[in-house]
Amino acid sequence: MHIPTLLTALTLLPSSLSLSIPFISRRQSPCFIIGSTPLPAETLKIANDLASTVTCDVSVRPLQNIPDTISGGVKFSSINFENSDLLPLDFALTTFSTPSPPSSASLTLFTNRLNTYLSQEAAVRSIGGSLSIKAPKFFLAFQVARIKTSRGIAITDPGQTVEHLLEKVIKNAGRVSQVTKDEITRLAKDL
């Protein structure tokens, strides 16, 4: 049968007849995006960038019924701010501390921690959930920026500089004490 004849024959098939042709997506959605709420463009980009890096464990749901996210062996459930009695930013300050200067901290470890928080935040946004995760997420991004800056690694994205992220951390600090805010401000100078 010639191709034009085959195409004509296919178009003449009744519309109720469905051909079983599997659809294969070029890129699957990130495993952690479980909701249908549209994501802001920046969050969508981050989620898509993390799709090939972050895996999910659906048997564990540590935050707002979202699957546990794992990056480089770091599980969000093992560093979940909600498992603490501390305020989210106080938890982050205590849990994600660096030596002074921060150049000797593990950039890989801090990046993997940040990846789990970024993916959880994207998931929370996808379900329209509470964004209390923002304070520890911004603090982790701040710590990554401090480590990079301390090592002399150029940060080309103005939104990822120590100065910019300090503002984001303070803006999303919630009801933490001035002592906590002062300590974070001090860390911004410890490079």
Automatic annotation (TrEMBL):
Signal peptide: 1-18
DUF7143 domain span: 33-190
InterPro entries the UniProt entry points to: DUF7143 (IPR055567)
Record flagged with keyword Signal: yes
Keywords of this entry: Signal
Name of a matching Pfam family: DUF7143
PANTHER family, sorted: PTHR37592, PTHR37592:SF1
Name of this chain's protein: DUF7143 domain-containing protein
Source species of the chain: Arthrobotrys oligospora (strain ATCC 24927 / CBS 115.81 / DSM 1491) (Nematode-trapping fungus)
Lineage of producing organism: Eukaryota, Fungi, Dikarya, Ascomycota, Pezizomycotina
